[in-house]
Amino acid sequence: MSVREFELYHGAALAKVLRSEKPVALRLVETKPGESWSTYTLNDAVDLLVTHSKNPRPVSRGGGGTSWSFVFSTNQLRQINPARSTRPVWVAMVCGRKAPADGDMQVCLLDPDQIAQVIDFGASQQSLTIRKPTGKGKLRVFKDRHEKFLVAQSRLDNWEIPGG
Q1: 64: number of CA atoms within 13 Å, CB side?
Q2: Is residue 33 part of a domain?
Q3: Contact, 16 vs 108, CB < 8 A?
Q4: Are 137 and 97 in contact (CB under 8 A)?
Q5: Among candidates 82, 80, 129, 135, which has minimal Cα distance to 108?
Q6: How many Å is the Cα radius of gyration of the chain?
Q7: DSSP secondary structure letters along 67-99
Q8: What is the SS3 assignment for 48?
Q9: 54 within some domain
Q10: How far apart are CA 56 and CA 96, in angstroms?
């Protein structure tokens, strides 16, 4: 059986979660196997939607760096909609490359409050842009070309997953 692309990128985010110092219980919420369902339940306390972009663009303005665009489908919006979940939903956006050797890759982790600030759950699709500055610095989250907030590059590594 071949490995599907999304499995590689989901694996990057899940490996970071599962290889932490604290034990984590994981299960996939698989309600429609034919669809690209990408929500995982952690410790029966929170849901984590994992999505990826493998097409970085160089940024020439504002200190340079690299940006990735993420388009959330109707299906993904349904998965992260707080009105449709009994648990808080977090989103891990894997900022990838076509090949891991092509350069730096990141995971931007958004909490439920941040998601509510930038996502319209009633829309048919939504997009966000994640920008990593050259060198050190926080990831910048953009909606409609406006910076909304900063996220530490190490946030997923340091995430204290509830229910553990």
Answers
A1: 3
A2: yes
A3: no
A4: no
A5: 129
A6: 15
A7: EEEEEE-HHHHHHH-GGG-SS-EEEEEEE--SS
A8: strand
A9: yes
A10: 7
**How many structural domains comprise the chain?**
1
Question: What's the CATH number where 56 sits?
Answer: 3.40.1350
- The answer as to whether 163 is a domain residue is no
Q: What is the pLDDT along the chain (164 residues), one digit of tens a residue?
A: 676 777 777 778 877 887 777 777 777 655 555 555 688 888 989 999 999 999 999 998 767 899 999 999 998 999 999 999 899 999 999 999 887 777 788 999 999 999 999 999 988 889 999 999 988 899 999 999 999 999 999 999 999 988 87
66 in any annotated domain = yes
Q: Are strands 66-72 and 126-132 parallel, antiparallel or unpaired?
A: antiparallel
DSSP 65: -
Instruction: Give the H/E segment covering residue 135.
Output: none
Q: How far is CA 82 from CA 54, 79, 87, 93, 107, in A?
A: 27, 8, 8, 18, 22
Range of the domain at 67: 5-158
